[in-house]
Amino acid sequence: MEQYTKILEELLDIKDELYLKGLITPFGGNISVRCPDDPSKALVTPGSVYKKNLKPEHFIQLDLQGNILNETKFKPTSETPIHLAILRARPDVNAVIHTHPVHATTLGVSDLDFLPITADAVIIGNLPIVEWTETGSPKSGQIIADAIGEHGNFVLIRNHGLFVCGPSLQFAAGITDMIETVCKELVLCKMMGVHPRVLPKEKIAVIHELMKSHSV
Ligand SMILES: [Zn+2]
Known about the structure:
The protein has 216 residues and is of the alpha+beta class. It has a single domain (2-213), classed as L-fuculose-1-phosphate Aldolase, CATH 3.40.225. It has helices spanning 5-20, 80-89, 102-110, 119-124, 138-148, 169-192, 201-213; strands at residues 30-35, 38-44, 60-63, 95-99, 129-130, 154-157, 161-166. The longest helix is centred in the last third of the chain and has 24 residues, at 169-192. Bound molecules: zinc ion. The site of zinc ion has 6 residues, from loops.
């Protein structure tokens, strides 16, 4: 795994950031990244390892069909079928981040609408939700990959958590943070018993224009 030192360092940095924010929990959440030297292979976090203690030697290398390629005593996360289904379906995706964010999950189980309250919310747009599914099953991989679709980058699984994918680990982590931030603001409004003021249509149009010239 020495050839993957750099990408695993980046992955562990992202994991630390998400862990400190409470988005990845000791036994909840997982990350995969496509191998930089071979797009038909991926590195995934193990199941049952306390996330704070993750080290490069814990990672499992798999082909996109799920065959383990490195010698390891660790098992890939039980949610590996979803990571691999997304990586198979989307050659443009290099990283998949699965988190258990408190506010996004609360929004999903409370049937709160994802509203355009900030520029972040407008950039995210719509937050698709799929119903709870057994995430270890191959079928679950297809359900989540289909929900993300050809051009999407995320989906919330009701009663579970969030999957975000993208061209890089930083992109997927950034989008995860944006979704959770907006959901927190919406949940706080609900807790205060107020209906949030949404951005007016003309200001949303300005943000859409800005998005064309600035990538997120
Ligand atoms: Zn999960």
